[in-house]
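Troubleshooting: if your tokenizer reports a length mismatch, compare your output against this known-good record of 182 residues.
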Amino acid sequence: MRRTPDGRVDIVDENLHLAVGLAITPDQSALLYAESGAHRLTRLRVTGPEQGRRETVFGNLPGFCANLSSFTAGRAWLVIGNPRSPALDRLATSPAWLRRLLWHAPERLYPAPSAAVWAVAIDPSGCIVDQIHGRHKHFHCATGAAESGEFLYLVGPHTSLLELDLTGPRKPGTLGCYLPAR
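Known-good structure output:
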């Protein structure tokens, strides 16, 4: 939705598929938003001659978008919560009655979350400028990100926080410092 200076509220797009994060570019010319259900990142031009134009920045992402941070130091972090699952992709196009039935299944029957930790940094034009991808024995399924100074912080749904040093060498399998919630 967009609120105009005179107080009117306009619906900008009614066809989002589980929108989970948005960030305005540093020059405020475009809004980027992530859709977990559509596996894509979209740019909406909000000023200039292309105002209102939508374009897919990344489509058919290999994972479920979980969030998109604000721009800091010229980049925003797109958090990938879990990799895609062929079974869930099929379920998304199955009849509604089947999806409703499975939604009420006991939680013990749900697939376990992936142990992957994944976030992709993009610049305002949508180019990938950095990436964190690996595993951490005490952390999985990031749902939020914030960059501050030399560190990227990832948070997950299980009350944990991961601190990643963005300046040091990156060794496979070593992602950062796990900080349990207090």
